[in-house]
Fold each of these.
Amino acid sequence: MRKCLLLGLIALIAAHGAAVAQEWPSKQPIHVIISNTPGSALDVTARIVFDQVGQQVGQTIVAENRAGAANVIGIAAVAKAEPDGYTVLVTTSGIAIAPYTHKTLPYDTLRDLRAVMPLGNLTNVMITPAGRFKSLKDFIAAAKSKPNGLLYASLGPGSTGNMSAERLGLSAGFKATQVPFKGTAEGVTDLAAGRVDFFFTPITAALGLIRENKVEALAIGSSSRSSLMPELPTTVEAGYPDSDYNFWIGVFVPAATPEPIAARLHDEIQKALQVQEVKDRLGKFGAEPMNMTLAQFDAYFKKELEINEKLVKAANITPQ
């Protein structure tokens, strides 16, 4: 009898979960909080994907930019939101860095947020001034011969450029000096002028200068090659294990969001990412697919937190 009751309870819970997923979304709008400014790669990616998701579920989606404090403002807004599937966060891999570069945060990353689905890995390329280094091997030799003598551009401590440079340095055994810039364009401009020695930058920001031979691309800093420059190997392929660093865009919801709703949201995003128009538009931004299940992205995100904790310590970044 007890066994029958237990089986009946399990069946009832499963049926309720399926009903919840089927009912969502039953009201509108769905608020998509984008943790960066309008026109940024994050903003454009989020709008491309969620425009398609809105069409699929037949509901209005309102995209809201909540920029500031290195994505923290937007992340906090979702972390404290009602966990009903109607407030969704789109942010960058910086969410996995913030716990170690901030003294305090208005949320607990693992307790308050749940990873749902990555929208893509925005490929970073390592560029140097034209003619300065013959290859990545040549660059590494120069960097080792002059400890802290080479300069690299970044958007500040904890940025992808900073983390990528430190990750390669740890793998290859060299240290270089960081030169922070306000924006990617300024960093690329100074590098092209020869005032800094290298820069890990989004590939789309440098592609024109690479093709015009005004800067040299030595390697891809991400974990996989770019479809925009498929001939260029990654730093790992070039012989430097654990030197890759990814700048990804991902979707999160409040941690208490019911499993069926998180799963349905994941499935709708995955479906949207398979639409050819969406794939083509994201490809123009250098976004490479990261096809993961709900569980896989959760595990990936937790691993990213572990990697960044060690990397921030190794880079001697002081939490602000």
Note: DSSP finds twelve helices and eleven strands in the chain.
Amino acid sequence: MRKIRWGILGVAKIATTKVIPAMQRAEHTEVAAIASRDLTKARAAASQLGIPQAYGSYEDLLYAPSIDAIYNPLPNHLHVPWSIRAAEAGKHVLCEKPIGLTVAETLDLIAARDKAHVKIGEAFMARTHPQWLRAAAIVRSGRIGDLRVVSGHFSYFNRDPKNVRNIAEIGGGGIMDIGCYPITFSRMMFSSEPSRVHAFLDRDPGFHTDRLASVILEFPQGHASFTCSTQLVPYQKMHIFGTTGRIEIEIPFNAPPDKPTRIFVNDEVEEFPACDQYTIQGELFSRAILENTEVPVPLEDALKNMAVIEEIFRSAAHRKA
């Protein structure tokens, strides 16, 4: 059985603790190499995770003939530059969300993908989890009537000045880190794009990142609203309301890989067996390469999510003016 040989760009925590172990359990993925600008760190991660090859530079990984695809979990401002370099080296790319910092950057990445004839996708692992797919199917079935409202919340508390999420210059802040999730969830449930965006942001006086955001998205069929924060008690939930019913997703974003998950449909509970959404994401991406089909979250969708993010910042800035 053919497997896609993956190289990991960097030793980010999400890669070493979540994505790599999950991908190693997928049927068609092989994590063959990991790179860091510090060879010692790359070798340590490789030893810890049982990865055969370690590289002391990103370039060495990108041009390794034994590697088919790259997973890019670098800080946000490095998503597009290194994904473009990977594409130019002939590698397929699964890039962490958000895909970039701007719409313009994302368009550059699409152009690079098309020129190189490779596959590039955004790593929104939750979009491939069975609970999201089931919720979307229920909405489309008409079981809750006509969809009118999507609402939710996503927060955690982190004031570490060294954490990349708190560094404005490299794409830190709540909207980029976690606000992008309820945005893509709302777009997925409505199966359309918002026509107007209304946003209110509160910025940390020292970090200058958005630490609290309240957003309303106007869709042709109804409204989506959410709050996200990097300085609130950890919590997450998404609700879907139709004209005759409702859906609640109990743990919509960080679904545990070792426990069942639940959604509530009106007065009924639907339970999903434990599964790792990172394993599913890696498997589906690898199969898309092997079968020459579309990746789970293509750049065209990433571009639309990025456009909403830009509108959020534009709306908030206008209200401050």
Note: Residues 130-274 form a domain with the Dihydrodipicolinate Reductase; domain 2 fold (CATH 3.30.360.10).
Amino acid sequence: MQALRIYAGPRARAHVAEYGLRPADVGIVPAAAGGPKGMILGPLDRFIFGEWLAQSNQPVDLVGASIGAWRMATACLRDPISAFARLERDYIAQDYELEPGRKTPSAAQVSERFALNLESFYGGRMQEVLQHPRYRLHIVTSRGRHLLRREHRVATPLGYLGAFLTNSMHRRAMSAWLERVVFSTVDALPFATNDYRTRQVAQTEANFQPALQASCSIPFVLNAIQNIPGAPAGAYWDGGITDYHLHLNYNAAGQGPLVLYPHFQKAIVPGWLDKSLKWRHGATHFLDNTLVLAPDPAWVKTLPNGKLPDRTDFTRYGTDLKSRVAVWSTAVSASARLADEFREWLEQPDMSRVEAL
């Protein structure tokens, strides 16, 4: 059984058929939201950023939401192999002492701990990210509007109900409640923005960590980040709400560099509220120049519990940290096959393995 499956849009497939895939061909790397699922991509991240892309010198735009933003910021650190290894260890080992009378940690508790973790991880190293000689980082966040302009115990649930209802009718209509705000280290975005209400903000030392934490701040699980320096006032939440899997228009000009997308599934779902809207899960022309690397669903069934690590494991294992760590570590160790198979395919590209996205 092969662990890795490769999917390609028509432009990407034609390119690979003629030239194979070379490090210099890649101009964009997206990284999806998805919490613990992102850990399955650690071995691929270490190979791609620590070995393969290092063989080229072109600029590469890294676009991330939620855990994907954390991964892409990590790719910008010196020695990305050790940085990704630390991210993996820290994420797997996360644990929260429950407050008396609670079965789950409070949003304030999780937010406080996460802020400390980010400070420990990036403290003193922000310039490595902001001034990377090749990688241009774009952190996607969701800024609340109207009822969602600030976090409130009544207004916030009502605002998200409104977002859910409007999104069900039309994705773009949800921008009445939430807008995409991208914090970037360069002026130009690597995707078109006429699909959804979008703002861009310059990434600085003052707003890097608040923006990264906002991009990971799942509503009701973590607190929103309010009034990020240099950005429009308001409450900022998880970038996956507006852009769950970053189904963005990377192909606006019908040309340009390839998009290499290590992902944990074939479908690239536009927003978090689109998860149950299956008709929005198919590939569009936005992804014509995209090559997706994803685990085979049959291989995923061989992992502990027959699935990728996900947020339900926090409930499944509760305070049994040792068991959760063991299960997640086993899954991540097994995912080394994804990187091994990609390395082998690059050496001898087999078009029979490249499926339509």
Note: The longest strand covers residues 135-144.
Amino acid sequence: MFLLPDRNCDYCPRLKEFREENRIKFPDKFNAPVPSFGPENASLLIVGLAPGLRGANFTGRPFTGDYAGDLLYGTLLKYGLAKGEYKAAPNDGLELINARITNAVRCLPPENKPIGAEINNCRPFLSSEIENLKNLKVIMCLGLVSHNSVIKTLGGKLSAHKFGHNAVHDLNGMTVIDSYHCSRYNTNTGRLTTKMFEDVFDTIKTYL
């Protein structure tokens, strides 16, 4: 049984206050903890940072509605891990194949920056996600926050498992593979290119 946050989750006072502010500003949007997306028999779990304001926080589906989703879903389609067409909307009919997407923090944080206590408060949901995916082999971490949260969830030491783009970590029977986050900032600055992102998926394929 997956542990899921309540729509009005109050674990993090700052995030709750921010969520309520956005419900007033954008009453027709999702504005709630964003659930995972993808089949429960997936072998690959992709863990992002947190919902974006005009992306998942608006649409209710991870990485849907912002630039990061364009690159992520486009790549998943290219590698046969999704089918259909990504149209940046939760009702576009896109389906994931053997892959599932979640976030280290389920609620939108101000300035897209959750604080340590909020990451810790949300970790039980990540832990439940990992425990209940019975066919899980590989966890892809998008960015440092995701990496740190996953390593801690798996009981590892951060000093022994340092983040690095396309770095591979074997931990308690699980393969963890890192990537720079597919954000517009990272791609605009050249920190992450499409080829670099696809290189990570080439690595993932060898472990699935």
Note: The two ends are 24 Å apart (CA to CA).
